[in-house]
Amino acid sequence: MAGSVRVESGGLGFTVRAQAERIAVELPDVATLKTLLSGAGDIGQLRFIAGLLERYDMDVVIQLKGETIATLGRGAEPGAFENMFALGAVDVKKRQLIKALFKRRD
């Protein structure tokens, strides 16, 4: 599987790219991230999706302003934060997230 698609709705847009067993969701700004998170469902759904990705040897990386801020599935390396909330195969990259939040996009 390989390819990319641009998703746009309500004035917000992002790109989804697929290459072999990896799907990258590229978010251009914080507003788009907030919109996606508000419709993401609950933690149980996140755990379920991450578990399926891990089971089928796939991963999804979430990128904000060019920084990888999270990985779900096979490539995830959960730390204390993720384990505290029992997120399963989810890795939130806190440093990259903070860096992206303050990064200017040219």
Lay out the secondary structure.
Blueprint: E1 2-9, E2 12-19, E3 22-27, H1 30-38, H2 43-55, E4 59-64, E5 67-73, H3 80-84, E6 90-92, H4 94-101
Parallel strand pairs: 3-4
Antiparallel strand pairs: 1-2, 2-3, 4-5, 5-6
Give structural notes.
With 106 residues, the protein is of the alpha+beta class. It contains four helices and six strands. The chain has a six-stranded mixed β-sheet. A hairpin with a 2-residue loop joins strand 4 (59-64) and strand 5. The longest helix has 13 residues, at 43-55. The protein is globular, with a radius of gyration of 14 Å. The model has no long low-confidence stretch (mean pLDDT 88).
Please work out how many helical segments DSSP would assign.
Answer: 4
- Helical residue percent band: 25-40%
pLDDT under 50 segments (min length 5)? none
β-strand percent reads: 35-45%
Question: How many strand units?
Answer: 6
Biggest pleated sheet: 6 strands, mixed
Radius of gyration: 14 Å
In N-to-C order, the SSE pattern is EEEHHEEHEH
Query: Based on helices, strands and strand pairing, what is the structural class?
Result: alpha+beta
Mean pLDDT over the full residue set: 88
